[in-house]
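Example (one chain per record):
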Amino acid sequence: MAPVFEHADKLFALLHSLVRRPKKGEFPEATEGQDGLPVVMLVGYEASELAELADTIDKRSCKEAQPPRIPHKLIDVSGVLATMNRERPDLEGDWRRAELYRRVLVELAMEFASPSNSPDARVQFRRFGLVNWLLETNNTADPLRGQPDHELLMRLQTRELQRRGFFRVLRNPTTEVALEGRAPWWAWILGLHVLPVLWFRAWRAVGPEYRWLLRQPYMAPRDPGTFAGFALRLTQPRFEHENPEQVGKLLVNAFLEDLRVAYRRRIWRRRAWRRTTYCVALLKGVREDNFGQQLIRSLIEVRIETGDFDPLLVIGTSRTHDYAGPQWGQLEDDLVMNWGAQFVAARRGRSAEDWYLPVRIPATLDPGTDAYTRHSKNLLPKLQFRPEPSPRWARRRVTALAVVLAVALVAGAVGWRLDPAREERWEQQHCKLPRTDPDAATVETRGAECVGVAPHGFAFGSQDESLQKTLKKIDEQNRAAEEIHRDAPDRPIVTLVHLSALLSSPGTGKAAGLLSYAREALQGVASAQKRQLNRTGSDDPLLRVLPASAGLNMQYGPEVVGMIAKMMRTDPTIVGVTGLDQSRKATITTIHRLTRIGLPMVATTLSADTLPEASPLYYQVSPQNRREAAVAAAYSKHLVADSGGRLKPRVRVIYSADPTDEYSSNLRADAATSFHDAGFDVEQQAYKPASPSSGTPNAPEVSEVGAGTCHYPGLVFFAGRSEDFDTVLSAANDSCGRSDPPTLLAGDDIARLAANPDRRGAYPRIPYDFLDFTQGVGSCDEPSDLYTIMQTLFPDECNRVENSSLDGHAALAFDAVNLYLKAVTTLPGSPNRMPITPGAVWKALGSIHGDSAFDGESGSIDFGGVVDRQVPLDKLISVQRVQGPKRPKQMGFCGVAGRQHQNTWCPESEAVQAQADALTAG
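Predicted structure:
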């Protein structure tokens, strides 16, 4: 029968609240980061009554707890001391206390690990077991002899092998007999001798108990510096003059660490979540002379010194005259709350006394009295502890079900991944790339084209070897930039997306001219990247380039912007976009989409007047169509004046009827205005392009328009695309012959055709002029930053033909990239470095004007210092003449190009016009 005393029910309710583990965190639950279980001391006058109370807690409250049984052990400290005195009379002084610690902890460990507890409640004592085994090695009938360190390791190896089922079976005599004569000699030696030794050596390095032993704070484990040396110290501590107090604390800490590991909640350690009660150590008869009080104090000191929570509730009983701790409380008080408040308030200044929760146990009531009946009635429902059930998701059945489902999902996923049809669909959707290709996830098949972003050198399915080499070179330089950044973190790394069209073109026939400009623009980008890699300044930015393709006529530009937006979420170094081919409706939509994601743009060849209105984040390095038309009209007027009457002041403006071709429509309108203002009679001729969009009205075929240029007395100004101009030249070559070729002047888009020597030589009887945004078609032999680097990076391209020439698009792309780099270098550097963001770079781009103007390969770039000006002032425009396969000849230029002077026939300077407009507005 349980002892009945005043407020006995409150005592058992108190103990119940301490035994129950919170669902989240540890006790006390409301003080995260300040966890700790008190040491409950039951203090009374009569030893027999305290013993009866301890037995009740042991047998009724913990053993019969439902569900499940609480891991607990009742230990008579005086009884353990008496047994120790009989068995170890050789111990003296503080070594007797250390031995008592060991024996008490061994009994607790054996009980907490015993099968009497549920499988989820058992604890493995690997660390304590190792320490205890080492301490007891010399207290046997077979102590260490000879070379003690070697013999110790051999015994430890035997111990570890016996604890492992595989090695235990392998070294069993029955197994040896069964395998004798059947297994080859090398397998015998490997299995019985080599493998066990290798496994033990590996386990000594990675086993948690071995690693912990050399890292724990007691007994200076780094002396002498090896595991064998420290283990040998533990086998003979008295002879090595060790401190018995440190030995005792090592034992306590090893015991508590095993409990900590078993209770440590991790999502993958579901058993720890099923431990819903703490382990209970009941110490009966705690006194100073039986070392019980010292054991409790050492446990508290270990808690303080390690700062770790341990899931052990210690309940001690002590008579009033044997107790020497803090003042006890009365059961009618809220003892747990009072203790918790004091414990949390102490924080880092806690002393050993702060861990005690002493409780005064009143005298037992006499049966038959009213008080006995009343308190007995209140006590009965409190006697049996009722732990909380484990979380549903952590229970064994749920775990087993989760494992089965996980295995099924993995099997299904593996089957799904290995499905040939699925892989075939993937490759069809991702430009024939397997999943393992690093570029596969960011490229897509759209119709007959491959579009997207390819950071790792994929050529978007193009078979053009020069393009493939160019993209591989950019990939190599990207990796070089990342490596330099790792070695020199102070050099910031910025990433630009170069967005092109037609990268998946086959690169043959007329398509070769269409592809050459995109390839050479990328070569210009790669040259700017290489130039930056060659710099060695501590703050010089490093550049990564992400080539991107938007397909024919930029029609998939918005979809590619979506891919770029996803990449920006994981790559904050992306700060801008270059490229943006062809002034079409799809290009304007792409600009709108880039504006939505906050990326500034520096276009290389775009020239339509309306583009700057599409976005405040938009800049370009080329002039606008209105400036191009003005130069064309001024040059044509000069030609008429010098022709001696052969040319009439008439002009036929040929343009594309495609309503989506913003470039051709805009250049046609600007040309009509400029030629009219220059005194020309203007007629306009539309044609149906080779690849018209839906909604293109009926118009003559390109070949028909080309044949109709024969015998025209004035100039023919072509405001269309290079692929269509190729057809015009073919028709004129066939129809007009050498005797009466038309006088042709074409817009800047024709530069991509003129850069291809094969296409230049295709129509030798039809010379023509075209407008170019650079100082003519460049050569790798020229002494400049761009072409010197290109000779190094792309020697095959430079040596491809004897009369080597390169499209001016390389210079424009080179300047666009360097414009970004110039903007980045204007941002404040170390030590108060401004974050390099798209917004910061955009603002810095607008500051490039006046003395800070950029003198590029394609001419001077000066944005005028006006907030809404996004086009360079007086950007260079040259006139080039093509006559057969020879390199084009420059006929003159207008604009700012270093210290060179423009031709006298050029139109009025834009800078002068801007000043005049400002004065007029003022």
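Caption: The chain is about 45% helix and 10% strand.
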